[in-house]
């Protein structure tokens, strides 16, 4: 068993992703942890949302997590040696009403972390702003867009499909 006590969030996520992959369970990091990665720490999250892409049975996931020393507590898995907690929202993997087409990967010495692209991370945050008027999510989308090469035209077309072109314009006006 690997000691996870001193793992960074990225290392822990890559380790869990890779261990699940060994059991043919495909998960992708989404949510606040992606914002933390792409904002270079402007945002901090201790919640790792690993989207269960193909809706593998929760029993399979639980078995792997328990073998890694995690304990199920409500909707999260926790481990005594880390401050991070892991959740497995069911798929399909999407942002707003659109499917995710491309997955990024970060390789660490513990494995491969699959995660949303920076553009899809922005979409994920903008979806919360568009549909629930969540202003902190707008701020997070701006942080990610300002620190990464995101596809503004793709974001615009997606925003049109989400019927939120007006809010997209607000997002654009606040970018550096």
Describe this structure in words.
The protein is α+β, with helices and mostly antiparallel strands. About 45% of the residues lie in helices and about 20% in strands. The chain has 2 domains: about 110 residues, Beta Polymerase, domain 2; about 55 residues. Helix 4 runs antiparallel to helix 5. The radius of gyration is 16 Å and the shape is elongated. The mean pLDDT is about 95.
Q: Top keywords for this entry?
A:
176 residues, alpha+beta, Beta Polymerase, domain 2, five-stranded mixed beta sheet, two-stranded antiparallel sheet, elongated
Please render the helix and strand layout as text.
Elements: H1 9-21, E1 27-30, H2 32-38, E2 47-52, H3 58-67, E3 71-73, E4 76-78, E5 85-87, E6 94-95, E7 98-99, E8 103-108, E9 111-116, H4 118-132, H5 135-147, H6 152-161, H7 165-173
Parallel strand pairs: 2-5
Antiparallel strand pairs: 1-2, 3-4, 4-5, 6-7, 8-9
Helix pairs in contact: 4-5, 4-6
CATH structural architecture of the largest domain? 2-Layer Sandwich
The biggest beta sheet reads:
5 strands, mixed
H/E element order: HEHEHEEEEEEEHHHH
Low-confidence stretches: none
Report the structural category.
Answer: alpha+beta
CATH topology of the largest domain: Beta Polymerase, domain 2
The shape is elongated
Report the average pLDDT across residues.
Answer: 94
The radius of gyration is 16 Å
Number of domains as seen in the coordinates: 2
CATH uppermost class of the largest domain: Alpha Beta
Helix content: 40-55%
- Helix tally equals 7
β-strand number = 9
């Amino acid at each position: 068993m690997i000691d996870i006590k001193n793992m960074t969030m990225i290392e822990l996520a890559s380790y869990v992703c890779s261990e699940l992959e060994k059991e043919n369970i495909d998960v992708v990091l989404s949510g606040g942890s992606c914002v933390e990665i792409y904002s270079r720490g402007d945002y901090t999250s201790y919640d790792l949302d690993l989207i269960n892409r193909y809706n593998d049975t929760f029993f399979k996931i639980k078995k792997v997590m328990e073998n890694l020393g995690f304990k199920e507590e409500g909707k999260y898995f926790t481990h005594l040696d880390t401050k991070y907690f892991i959740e497995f929202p069911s798929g399909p993997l999407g942002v707003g009403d659109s499917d995710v087409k491309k997955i990024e990967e970060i390789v660490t010495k513990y494995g491969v972390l699959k995660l949303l692209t920076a553009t899809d991370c922005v979409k994920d945050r903008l979806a919360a702003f568009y549909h629930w008027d969540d202003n902190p999510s707008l701020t997070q989308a701006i942080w990610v867009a300002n620190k990464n090469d995101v596809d503004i035209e793709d974001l615009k077309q997606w925003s049109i499909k989400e019927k939120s072109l007006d809010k997209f314009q607000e997002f654009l006006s606040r970018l550096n």
